[in-house]
Amino acid sequence: MVGSRLWRAGFRHQGRHRWQTILSVVGIALGVAVVMAVGLANQSASRAFEITMEQISGRVSHQIIGGPAGVAESLYSALRKRFPYLPSAPVVEGVVRLGEEQLTLIGVDPFSERPFRNLTQSATPEMLNRLLTRHDGVLISTYSAHRLGLEVGSRLTLDIGGNRQPVEILALFGTRQEAALDGVLITDIAAAQTLLQQFGTLDRIDLTLNQADVAKLQAWLPAGVRLVETERRTAAMASMSQAFQTNLTAMSLLALLVGGFLIYNTATFSVLQRRRQFGIMRLLGATRTEVFRAILTEQMVIGLIGTLVGMGLGILLARQLLWLVTRTINDLYFALTVSQLDLSPTILLTGALLGLLTTLIAASVPAWEATRSQPTSVNRRSVIEQQSHRALPWLLLLGLAGMGGGLLLVQNSERSLLLGFAALFCFIMGYCLLVPTLVPPLSRLLQHPLKRLFGTIGRLASRGIDASLSRTGPAIAALTLAIAATIGMGIMVESFRSTVGQWLAQTVQGDIYVTATHSASKRASAPLPDWLPERLRALPGVEDLSSGRHVTLETEQGPVSLLALGLAKRSYRGFNFKGETLPDLWGRFAQGELLLISEPYAYHNRLQVGDSFSLLSPDGNVRFSVGGIFFDYGSDRGLVVMPHNRYAALWHDNRITTLGVYLKPGQPIEPLLTRVKQLAGQSPRPLLVRSNREILEQSLEIFDRTFTITRVLRLLVIAVAFVGILSAMMALQLERAKEHAILRATGLTPRQLLGQISLQTLLMGLMAALLAMPLGWQMSDILIHVINLRAFGWSMPSQLAPDILLEATGFALFAALLAGLYPSLRMARTRPALALREE
Question: What is this structure's pTM?
């Protein structure tokens, strides 16, 4: 009987404080929405990659791959003659563009495809004949055609390596609901070789082998090609974006953590507001268990509503985040088309459980505290505050233990990214437990300055924070966490951007650079005309040229980017080495004795200066020694640099893909830039001519685009934090209505009360901002030096931008002032007798 009254009283209380309840629902809903949106976007991108690879790979168990030149077509013919019983199929693959859309063009042999894929099995004999006899016929999935507004017979103009090639859609495959192979064009292998200008070469040969066949084939294969397992190669490609997606998930959990503090604050204030009610119920026979269950149940109902709302918001938000995730993966890793959101039941269930679990943990503490008090002492505020102050030493110990545990976890977790995030969250929670212990000394420290500035009002505002520590402590801790999160993420992004800007300024030593627009091949960048270097060198005002060849090599660990450099005299200044290098580095590098590797490549492959590793050349594996490790922020996969003449001798490839033009001292850049563009215009393939300033600006634009999703997550964390702060501060001030009424009854005017409440909330906001700065700085330090290094292999210095601290302080003061405005206005208009009626 008493238990049912407790439940009814609890829900009536929530109804009377509906704004407090609504803000709690919104806070947990936003936290769940952010986690679920990131989870669904990541899952959709990963699932799209898996489905595409499954459809492309089919029943393929192994693949024969080569180097930058691909696999010779003659090898496939020899393979068919030597092993006629082995299922095998040649494949040509390239990247093409249709407007802003990036598509993958795959050339297959319809007669060899049947053991592996079902791409052409539904084709009629007439359509198959057209596919084999036309050099411009392609197939596209029904889903892609519907999305792009295409149909059978549509004529398209594809941008293939800067050349415009017309093609016609001969047929559609799949259903309108199947998103598999979205963004993929299928054509005959001969047509693909013509379109991609890839005559006589293949990208790979697909096979289905047993273990006995593997051994025979490996013994037969010539040097320069490699037999790899399809699953291992696919897993290596998928792992390239795994760290990026893990980072996004961790950032989204930070929003949920802020939401959890919001639930804790709400439950705490709800308990404090009803301590008298709980005391009466206890005197009437309610047990501690019944009180605990009643509080927990009503908070779980709020959490459930917030979770359900958050799931709906998360799905809507995921649709917006999906294209940001996909664009970043395309910019940094590999070509991927994702146009359909995968509503994974696992992600939906995980989001719901996280929301409910966060609510359960956050609400359990105040519910347990409500059962500890004796019924006879619940009306005495002094008892509550004495208990709060007696708990400070324990909070201090727990906080220091949490922070110390986080730091120890960082030191002893080696390269584990997940343990790095666990250390970060341990440190955050430890610091938040420490915050209430710092509030009383800060409050006492500010008493005298505030009294001199604002008189009695200032002294009341300052002392009120310490006197009501049971309510102000959790509110300031929640606000501290929210502000620290924005500071930490802001410092990380700005440090990265500043470091990348400095790296680009040092790396881009040339005055003008010439490259092809983009490459259709996934193995190598598009080459420049052979005549271009000499013509550029002959231009008046040109002092020197540097050249480069960008290719991708396949290794057992996945694809590796190789840059073959022909260095100019000033090019050497473009390398900033990490640590010591081997003696006579540049002399031995020029002779091809040593290679240079980027910091991410060294980190992921556990290489140091002096170590050796092998690369697959057309003549077989060649071992190289590491002469130096240089800083590079262009790719988290890593980069290997070797002299161009050494690369040309080993890979039989003398082509170049980029040229750097160095001007004579005092030579103006604009006239020569025009001359270079005129010369590049004579190339049959469009070339891109840019000054170093343009490259710097465009590179930073790409960087900003890459970090757009991080900034979006930071804004979402701020949104969750703002709702939490608003809820906590409003609940705090409304719960103190009787205290304010007593002040009014003793002579305080409405204007003075408004000033006192506003000053107190501003003071709490200022305290939170000051306490958030060390936490935010330490968070950024862990994010930069632990998380970022383990995820991407990049190291960089932390750089504190004052505007981030000013922005965070302004946000804290604004949120606190706004939160205190409503209760102060309400109390200023309320007659003291009404607020004191129960007294």
Answer: 0.77
